[in-house]
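Please decode residue identities from the backbone states below.
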């Protein structure tokens, strides 16, 4: 991967974006309401380029992974997307860590590009020869999500394309999964914020400096945002949003927060940045590599 790890540091806590792979998406199919002619700067050669990855949060003696990316698959959906992953453990090793060093895995939601490394079998939809996983990749870690998310994908949306595979993801998790609620703390300064809309149990992870020395916090947004186009055009939504109206309302609330760095893993040109109000919309200012938040 040509892209090097991006990192934000607030006080003693660091948040690092670990790359797993990338997807090339047909913009008209994935975000049909966007005026792409006016927003071509968000595209590369007419395609929406969405990286897949995981945020590593090191807070105190705790090491947390937010989402588990796509996993080792190379999948084409004709006319819609070409998705390729598989680099996450190498990105983790580059940080000097092995899977057994991870204390907590937290899922923002269970779409296929956020769960890929749950086991050693990437959940390829409709795989011709599905393999049985041999165990959890992060065997020592707690695995947490909201109860609403688990119930949705094991209930009304079970087996839906784009969600978790029963063999690769649901069965290995069912005896270990722990549910978290809005306001729960994963480590000092690391809290859960329920942000339902993209999926019924979607959550965000908010990181602040527990010493209080730094006022700025980092909002790990999951799939509240996929592209900076959603910051400039606050009305547009993504094809896989389960409840687009709710997504808009939650997104508006996040954009209005002061002193917030947004961490958006799917953004083409860098996961970290700030949204600044301009008139009745916002502009996105990416933060470069290895910055320190104020
Ligand atoms: Zn996603």
């Amino acid at each position: 991967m040509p892209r090097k790890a991006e990192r934000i540091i607030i006080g003693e806590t660091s948040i690092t974006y670990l790359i797993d792979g990338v997807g090339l998406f047909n913009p008209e199919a994935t975000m049909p309401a966007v005026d792409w002619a006016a927003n071509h700067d968000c595209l590369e050669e007419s395609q929406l380029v969405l990286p897949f990855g995981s945020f590593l949060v090191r807070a105190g003696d705790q090491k947390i992974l937010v989402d588990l990316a796509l996993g080792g698959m190379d999948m084409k959906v004709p006319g819609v997307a070409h998705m390729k992953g598989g680099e996450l453990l190498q990105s983790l090793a580059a940080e000097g860590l092995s899977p057994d060093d991870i204390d907590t895995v937290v899922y923002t939601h269970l779409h296929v590009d956020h769960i890929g490394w749950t086991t050693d079998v990437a959940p390829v939809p409709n795989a011709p020869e599905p393999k049985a996983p041999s165990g959890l990749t992060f065997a020592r870690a707690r695995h947490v999500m909201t109860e609403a998310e688990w119930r949705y994908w094991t209930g009304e949306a079970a087996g839906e394309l784009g969600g978790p595979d029963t063999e690769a993801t649901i069965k290995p998790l069912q005896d270990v999964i722990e549910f978290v609620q809005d306001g729960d703390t994963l480590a000092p300064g690391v809290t859960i914020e329920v942000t339902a809309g993209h999926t019924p149990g979607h959550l965000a992870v908010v990181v602040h400096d527990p010493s209080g020395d730094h006022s700025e916090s980092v909002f790990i947004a999951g799939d509240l945002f996929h592209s900076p186009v959603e910051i400039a055009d606050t009305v547009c939504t993504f094809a896989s949003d389960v409840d687009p109206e709710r997504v808009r309302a939650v997104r508006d609330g996040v954009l209005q927060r002061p002193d917030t760095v947004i961490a958006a893993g799917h953004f083409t040109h860098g996961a970290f940045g700030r949204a600044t109000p301009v008139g009745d919309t916002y502009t996105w200012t990416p933060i470069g590599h290895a910055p320190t938040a104020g």
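Observation: The CA atoms of residues 26 and 47 lie 6 Å apart.
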